[in-house]
């Protein structure tokens, strides 16, 4: 399992949702964020325009499709396009049902031989 964290400009969010709607999106958490990147330190007054922080927990095999959808939706080639981080998830627990691991993400449970 992976946790994808993306920081993107808010104006790209609706396009991203449209792109992710074409695939099975396991779920999404969105929060407002502000910050600056390494290239932004050149300025005397550091601007921190509003961004959105997206968090998506997914199966390993879904991660690259989601990453590419985020990249396609947010990429302009200009400063401020954002960042995507991918982290491993050791475990997950759905509080409502007690399901763990893949099942907690709404995935079909792994079949063990």
Key terms for this structure?
113 residues, alpha+beta, Alpha-Beta Plaits, 4-stranded antiparallel sheet, 4 strands, 23% strand
Q: β content, as a range?
A: 15-25%
**What would CATH call the architecture?**
2-Layer Sandwich
Give the overall average pLDDT.
86
> What is the CA–CA distance across the termini?
20 Å
Largest sheet, in brief, is: 4 strands, antiparallel
CATH class: Alpha Beta
- Provide the domain count: 1
Order of helices and strands: EHEEHE
Radius of gyration: 16 Å
What would you call the structural class? alpha+beta
What ranges have pLDDT less than 50 throughout 5 or more consecutive residues? none
Question: Can you characterise this structure?
Answer:
With 113 residues, this protein is of the alpha+beta class. It has a single domain (2-105), classed as Alpha-Beta Plaits, CATH 3.30.70. Helices cover 21% and strands 23% of the residues. The chain contains two helices and four strands. The chain has helices at 13-21, 60-74; strands spanning 2-8, 29-33, 51-58, 83-88. It has a four-stranded antiparallel sheet, covered by helices on one side. Helix 1 (13-21) packs across helix 2.
Task: Compose a concise summary of this entry.
The protein is an alpha+beta fold and 113 residues long. It has helices spanning 13-21, 60-74; strands spanning 2-8, 29-33, 51-58, 83-88.
Topology summary:
Elements lengths: L1 E7 L4 H9 L7 E5 L17 E8 L1 H15 L8 E6 L25
Antiparallel strand pairs: 1-3, 1-4, 2-3
Helix pairs in contact: 1-2
């Amino acid at each position: 399992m992976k946790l994808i964290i993306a920081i993107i400009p808010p104006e790209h969010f609706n396009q991203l949702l449209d792109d992710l709607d074409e695939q099975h999106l396991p779920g999404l958490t969105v929060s407002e964020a502000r910050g600056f990147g390494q290239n932004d330190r050149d300025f005397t007054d550091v601007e921190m325009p509003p961004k959105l922080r997206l968090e998506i927990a997914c199966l390993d095999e879904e991660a690259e499709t989601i990453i590419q959808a985020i990249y396609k939706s947010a990429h302009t080639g200009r400063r401020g396009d954002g960042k995507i981080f991918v982290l491993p998830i050791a475990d997950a627990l759905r509080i409502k049902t007690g399901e763990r691991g893949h099942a907690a993400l709404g995935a079909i449970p792994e079949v063990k031989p």
